[in-house]
Amino acid sequence: MSDKRTLKVAVLGCGAVGSQVVRLLTEQSDDLTARVGVPVELVGVGVRRLDAPRDVDLPDGLLTTDVAGLVARADVDLVVEVIGGIEPARTLILSALDNGASVVTANKALLAEDGPTLFEAAEKAERDLYYEAAVAGAIPILRPLRESLAGDKVTRVLGIVNGTTNFILDKMDSSGAGFSEALEEAQELGYAEADPTADVEGFDAAAKAAILASLAFHSRVTAADVYREGISDVTAADVASARDMGSVVKLLAICELRPGPNGDQVAARVHPAMIPRTHPLASVREAFNAVFVESEAAGQLMFYGPGAGGAPTASAVLGDLVTVARNRLAGTRGMGESAYADRAVQPMGETRTRYHVAIDVDDRAGVLAAVANAFADHDVSIQTVRQEGRGADAQLVVVSHAAPDAALAATVEQLRSMDIVREVTSVMRVEGGDE
Amino acid sequence: MSDKRTLKVAVLGCGAVGSQVVRLLTEQSDDLTARVGVPVELVGVGVRRLDAPRDVDLPDGLLTTDVAGLVARADVDLVVEVIGGIEPARTLILSALDNGASVVTANKALLAEDGPTLFEAAEKAERDLYYEAAVAGAIPILRPLRESLAGDKVTRVLGIVNGTTNFILDKMDSSGAGFSEALEEAQELGYAEADPTADVEGFDAAAKAAILASLAFHSRVTAADVYREGISDVTAADVASARDMGSVVKLLAICELRPGPNGDQVAARVHPAMIPRTHPLASVREAFNAVFVESEAAGQLMFYGPGAGGAPTASAVLGDLVTVARNRLAGTRGMGESAYADRAVQPMGETRTRYHVAIDVDDRAGVLAAVANAFADHDVSIQTVRQEGRGADAQLVVVSHAAPDAALAATVEQLRSMDIVREVTSVMRVEGGDE
Ligand SMILES: NC(=O)c1ccc[n+]([C@@H]2O[C@H](COP(=O)([O-])OP(=O)(O)OC[C@H]3O[C@@H](n4cnc5c(N)ncnc54)[C@H](OP(=O)(O)O)[C@@H]3O)[C@@H](O)[C@H]2O)c1
Ligand SMILES: NC(=O)c1ccc[n+]([C@@H]2O[C@H](COP(=O)([O-])OP(=O)(O)OC[C@H]3O[C@@H](n4cnc5c(N)ncnc54)[C@H](OP(=O)(O)O)[C@@H]3O)[C@@H](O)[C@H]2O)c1
């Protein structure tokens, strides 16, 4: 135990999350003292603008725009980074570690892009770098993956880790709305930003998938390793087609251990997928998040809660802060990066998936055989075919068994070029059931 | 860092859980070495009978009936207690700690009855005592409560923490079966023991409620502090009545922070309750467990998974073992008992609950007024009254607002004594909605 009488904390950023971190640090200070062992004193809050309105009452003199100076202070033990983005966040975190501070961050973008640089800096400085808030906001998921499941072998993680897209898809499912209409409603209600690209195109979820895959499989996975498709092409017809098979469309972050030529590989991808309504993830409504974990011994676990919001995210930040503070007092550190397994990343084309394909066809003899042949040509076996409508409205809905994603994509290509196929109206991967 | 080249572990008990702990220790040994930092070597397995059949292949010479001798070995660093029950488990854990070993246990009965003795021994010995597996099997819930939410204020925990009773109630709900029939089916399928008392009468859930309440509210709560009612009196009519209001009956472990005369008190109780089908806990089927946590900043979180079973429980034990082993190597300890808040336990009679009451009444003018008066006599306000049937089948279904439990019980007493009341056919508490 160190003889520290108090731990000094600097918070970088005082926006949606930072203001709530500051509020909790102040309001819960007696509890924090009891849980940490010594008082945790807020010594500075770094921002861009001194005069911006804040969601929290700040004691005089704490706010500063000299963020680099704040991080360089010799007396700062703990730094919370809730500015976001790559720079100046990266430089600030690196200089905090270099300066001997322990760091807590919520910055998924930075971790997914350049995590290894940060982890190596923490290792070199022999300091903690914690980031529970970076994935699924308030939901404790990184600590369970890293610690609770440390004696088990995680085989798959399926997550609804972006609230905006879940809100939009849930709206489309419950009201029959199209994508644009649902997006507009999400924007009006504050669930989507004016420029929704990062959420809607799956960039945010892909960053989280990289972080989840790294932890689950003890390997380095960055955002660039994650296959990514957003939801902007999901149509009301896709959602209706899912409904017809008792399924629902969700944007999933999927991280799996898959057999490769030289041992297990990591497959990480983000895309819309149909999952059965009976799957625990199917009941995750509105902007909530949930992460479903499969492991060898524990079986199936699910973690559910608010994936964003200032206060929920601040709760996760403070949880990390208490651990990091206790470690510091005890002169120890928590588990650092664990990448010993060093697995290769499986290319998306080789990753086995299942497809749901709806095809408008000419209603004549031999159509089904022709369509079935297209699948067979690519060694894709069919699980079910459903024929709907007659005449000009004739439609075939095919659900495949698992096959390499590239073979499925090539099958769809071939279907599109066939005479008897008027249109391929819906193509979507299927998850959460048997292969 | 210590210069230990290997950590030695003794496992006490080799039954459902112990055999899986031994299996994982062997099968995952490379991963465990990578995660802990040094090899974890199994040096002995304590049992009652040397010749009993085991679910795992044990290396020769590991099995011993001299359990006390195993625990007293000078070279044992880590002791896993999966014997269960009060004695000899307590004596063995105390002597392991006294001997300088760190301990991991799954023993909810012992922790709920005599936790403080164990925690004090761990404190005195300056050793870790971890017990994630004691509540909700594989589901990481204690670590999130204790660490992830350490910067937040937990206000309520609602848990389905007993798989046997959830299986029975789910069966009653889905098939209309009565309690005995559903219990028999649970026994046939291995979800209930031949003597089902501990599960069915809520003793097991009450032990878990005590553990959850202690952690959530940083206070000492033992099984004796937990109000307990089992499910053996739940009838098919209760379940049908719940269904009529869009609800489902679950055996809940409920831990709450409630205002008392001198600050917040802890209320902890286990009883069947009706919850709305839209509540996340309502969709927990069969023998699964789930714990729903409400906290000030994080909001509502849920943790879901298998609540029992050898392998899932062993996963939780191993997760603790990795942490405890790492702490030992680092010469540090995790968070010990946290009981600084030292809150009083609120008596059940004072705890505010809501009641659902179904009453067979005489079908004549003034009946509703008379029933309403009975509630008013005890200052209980009524949320809804539904009249069903006519004549000899006339029934009133009343749902109250929140009131002290004693006032609600007294109201039911009074109803039972009234002339116009033929029978009070169903009385059950209501949870998971607005007060
Ligand atoms: N919001 C959520 O629900 C949520 C959930 C999970 C994770 N996160 C993560 O949490 C982090 C913060 O998000 P947020 O929503 O709180 O962002 P935000 O509301 O935009 O706040 C950002 C804060 O950083 C400050 N800042 C920006 N650039 C700066 C610079 N160059 N130097 C100093 N200060 C600067 C801003 O100062 P001014 O106030 O002076 O402009 C502001 O206080 C991000 O990494 C985000 O991904 C957020
Ligand atoms: N089973 C679950 O799903 C589950 C879930 C959560 C928590 N737990 C907890 O885990 C613990 C173990 O449960 P379990 O289901 O594995 O029990 P179990 O199958 O009955 O196994 C008990 C083991 O302890 C040994 N044992 C019993 N009395 C002993 C004594 N006096 N001295 C030495 N060894 C003794 C037995 O030896 P023999 O084999 O020689 O008889 C047996 O190997 C309990 O605390 C339980 O509450 C169990």
Automatic annotation (TrEMBL), chains A, B:
Top-rank lineage group of the source organism: Bacteria
Example of a GO MF term: metal ion binding
Residues holding NADP(+): L12, G13, C14, G15, A16, V17, G18, S19
Keyword ATP-binding included in the entry's annotation: no
Pathway named in the protein's UniProt entry: Amino-acid biosynthesis; L-threonine biosynthesis; L-threonine from L-aspartate: step 3/5; Amino-acid biosynthesis; L-methionine biosynthesis via de novo pathway; L-homoserine from L-aspartate: step 3/3
ACT domain segment(s): 356-429
Keywords noted in UniProt: Amino-acid biosynthesis, Metal-binding, Methionine biosynthesis, NAD, NADP, Oxidoreductase, Sodium, Threonine biosynthesis
Residues reported in the UniProt entry to bind L-homoserine: E193
Cofactor: a metal cation
Signal peptide feature range: none
Key word Ribosomal protein present: no
EC number per UniProt: 1.1.1.3
Binding site for NADPH: K108
GO biological process: methionine biosynthetic process; threonine biosynthetic process
Catalytic activity annotation: L-homoserine + NAD(+) = L-aspartate 4-semialdehyde + NADH + H(+); L-homoserine + NADP(+) = L-aspartate 4-semialdehyde + NADPH + H(+)
Active site: K208 (proton donor)
NCBIfam families the UniProt entry points to: PRK06349.1 (NF004976)
Purpose of the protein: Catalyzes the conversion of L-aspartate-beta-semialdehyde (L-Asa) to L-homoserine (L-Hse), the third step in the biosynthesis of threonine and methionine from aspartate.
Family the UniProt entry places it in: Belongs to the homoserine dehydrogenase family.
Name of the protein: Homoserine dehydrogenase
